[in-house]
Design brief:
The complex is a heterodimer of chains A (about 425) and B (about 230). Chain A is an alpha+beta fold. In chain A, about 55% of the residues lie in helices and about 15% in strands. Chain A folds into 2 domains: about 190 residues, no CATH class; about 210 residues, no CATH class. Chain B has one domain: Rossmann fold (3-Layer(aba) Sandwich), CATH 3.40.50.300. Chain B contains 7 helices and 10 strands. Chain B has a 6-stranded mixed beta sheet with strand order 6-7-8-3-9-10, with helices on both faces. In chain B, strands 2-1-4-5 form a 4-stranded antiparallel beta sheet, covered by helices on one side. In chain B, helix 3 packs parallel to helix 5 and helix 5 runs parallel beside helix 6. Classes of the chains: A alpha+beta (about 425), B alpha/beta (about 230). At the A-B interface, helix 1, helix 10, helix 11 and helix 14 of A face helix 2 and helix 3 of B.
């Protein structure tokens, strides 16, 4: 085969049939763009939901006091259970499966004052490991409550980012004095902004946290409102729950099988459900993607097929004046490859520009915070282009092969 | 005289579903170099089938076709393509030009497949189109030309690689009488220049220009006469 001749014929016909080739190329690019965007949005949503889901904290359990519903060792049912400041350490010592644990106090309607601003706020008493358990991550320039704050019952204040806005506006709050119920506290840190999809006892954006030891002495609460714990291995959550009931039942004398004696929210179990929903969304988007891909594929195949049918006569003419079969086929292959790569590259570029552009549009929107920004995937793009390309190639190549395989007399008769 | 084409008991049958149709039922024909020959006959007599076989556009079902002594029946498709490219020029009733290409580009096609370099191609295309009187229409597309002009482009294309044989299938069938006459006089000139020319036609006025007349009927040659005598004087 004479490569020069093939290229010559290809280039010449290519220039002459720009419109048809452009249309096919655009069809392929369009298919690529629509699928890339669809799957890009799906991937963005998935990533954002996963991040948001972590807002309240990764795999944690929250323990509340309850009321007994079973008689136990001569004691009647209906007794209130309580959580004491000593319980977190007690549980950690009894249950090695627990990695982090901390007790938490809540007080609603505390008077928080900065200069002439007075607000009624929700104050919590927490421990340093809330940074890891509950994603109370400090912004640059500040810090979270630490072990020394707990040990020395320091009057330090860690703020949620929205409470900081309300109290201080744009001002840097670190080191400022705030009074809580007329007692002075020093601001040590502001929580980094985060998106939170679920919560107990209020949203972390409006958190006003102090060390739980400080809380205990200034408010004088005898009982913890809840305990937060985190396992080494999320798969142990059920076992930990069982052991908590046993340990607490032994200490406070209730039946460890009494489900209402304590309340536990196992977020790991919730996560499993959530992951199933995410999987559902992904499958749904995948199906839409596959169907879109199929439609685009049929479109590309259709254009190739029709154009080859129209060109059967052209093939006949070329063969009548001396084109070998291999020249005709090589030309069609070249053309199909050009369309595939050209359209694929064009589609990928457009998708990339759209998605990157969308990322850069500064829209402040809760919807976007929730939905996430679309994310492009090179792998998806390559798969899309290959599938469309192969469909186009098959749809174009076989009619061309047929047209080039019959005797020219037959192709020339084709109307 | 040197023999260029020899057909011996050539048959061509078509099978479409249940239908079996024999278009050629045993053709014997000898064409010599420089012959100017017309094949006439009613529709369905097998004229076009004969032309397709002579032009290597189709192969005979049985029988022997020798071109310059070479047995065509056994050649590969590439060898047949090379014959169509270099040794036979075609002129069709429907012109069969590439619709998207200009006159010059259409004439260039056989040269491309003969691997002629671009400089030589340009020179030959210009000469060929000048020879058929279309020097000023080089860059016109078929849609911008009259039927007579399109047929002249087709003739220029058929001459591109200087073939020995020109095959024309109803070359004037789609033309008005004036354009048709111009085309026929072109064949006359080609004949004078030494080409072997076969014209398939309905039109006896064209047949009168030729030196041999082959009449076909029902897939067979009915008569095969030498007319050169009547042109004397």
């Amino acid at each position: 085969m004479h490569i020069g001749t093939v290229l010559n014929v290809f280039m010449r016909d290519f220039r002459k049939q720009k419109k048809r080739i452009t249309l096919t190329l655009v069809a392929l690019a369009w298919g690529t763009v629509s699928i890339m965007l669809l799957l890009g949005f799906g991937e963005g949503l998935h990533q954002q939901l996963s991040i948001n889901r972590q807002g309240m904290g990764g795999e944690i359990g929250i323990l509340w006091p309850g009321r007994t519903t079973k008689v136990f060792k001569g004691m009647g049912k209906g007794r209130r259970t309580h959580l004491y400041m000593s319980d977190p350490a007690y549980l950690k010592s009894r249950i090695p499966l627990i990695k982090n644990i901390g007790g938490e106090f809540h007080r609603w309607g505390a008077k928080v004052q900065y200069k002439d601003k007075i607000m009624s706020e929700h104050i919590t008493g927490i421990t340093p490991n809330f940074e890891e358990m509950r994603n109370h991550i400090p912004q640059m320039g500040g810090r979270m409550i630490n072990a020394a704050d707990i040990a020395q019952k320091r009057r330090v204040f860690f703020l949620g980012f929205e409470l900081k806005e309300r109290l201080f506006g744009d001002q840097d709050p670190i080191g400022e004095m705030v009074s809580i119920n007329e007692m002075p506290f020093t601001v040590i840190g502001v929580m980094a902004e985060k998106m939170q999809m679920n919560s107990y006892s209020g949203d972390d954006a409006n958190l006003g946290a102090i060390p739980n030891t400080t809380f205990e002495v200034i408010f004088g609460d005898p009982y913890l409102d809840n305990i937060v714990y985190q396992p080494h291995d999320p798969n142990d959550m059920k076992e930990i729950e069982k052991q908590i009931f046993e340990a607490m039942g032994a200490k406070y004398k209730f039946d460890p099988t009494d489900d209402n004696a304590l309340g536990i929210w196992d977020t790991v179990a919730g996560m499993r459900e959530f992951n199933n929903i995410l999987l559902g969304i992904k499958v749904f988007l995948g199906i839409i993607g596959a169907l879109t891909l199929l439609i685009s594929g049929v479109g590309v195949a259709n254009i190739m097929y029709v154009s080859i049918k129209e060109r059967t006569r052209e093939i006949g003419i070329k063969m009548a004046v001396g084109a070998r079969r291999s020249y005709v086929l090589a030309q069609f292959l070249l053309e199909a490859m050009f369309i595939t790569f050209g359209g694929g590259f064009f589609g990928m570029s457009v998708s990339y520009i759209l998605i990157e552009g969308f990322k850069r549009v500064p829209i402040e929107s809760d919807v976007l915070d929730f939905m996430g920004r679309p994310t492009i995937s090179l792998e998806i793009g390559l798969v899309v282009i290959s599938i469309l390309g192969i469909m186009g190639l098959l749809a174009g190549f076989f009619p061309a092969l047929k047209a080039a395989s019959v005797k020219p007399a037959e192709s020339l008769r084709y109307e | 005289m040197q023999e260029i084409i020899r057909l011996k008991q050539v048959k061509k049958a078509y099978q479409t579903g249940e239908m079996h149709f024999e278009a050629l039922k045993g053709i014997n024909l000898v064409v010599n170099k420089g012959d100017y020959l017309a094949v006439v006959g009613p529709s369905g007599s097998g004229k076009s089938t004969l032309m397709n076989i002579l032009g290597c556009l189709d192969l005979a079902t049985s029988g022997e076709y020798r071109l310059d002594g070479e047995l065509v029946n056994t050649l590969s498709s590439n060898q047949l393509a090379d014959i169509r490219n270099k040794r036979i020029g075609f002129v069709f009733q429907a012109f069969n030009l590439l619709p998207y290409a200009t006159a010059a580009e259409n004439v260039e096609v056989p040269l491309l497949f003969a691997h002629v370099n671009s400089k030589e191609r340009r020179k030959r295309v210009t000469e060929l189109l000048a020879r058929v009187g279309l020097a000023d229409k080089m860059n016109n597309k078929p849609t911008e030309m009259s039927g007579g002009e399109m047929q002249r482009v087709a003739i220029a294309r058929s001459l591109a690689n200087e073939p020995e044989i020109i095959l024309a299938d109803e070359p004037t069938g789609n033309l008005d009488s004036k354009s048709g006459a111009a085309i026929v006089s072109m064949f006359d000139e080609l004949h004078k220049a030494g080409k072997t020319i076969l014209i398939i036609t309905h039109d006896m006025s064209i047949a009168e220009h030729t030196e041999r007349l082959v009449t076909m009927k029902d897939g067979l040659i009915e008569s095969n006469g030498d007319l050169s005598g009547r042109r004397v004087g």
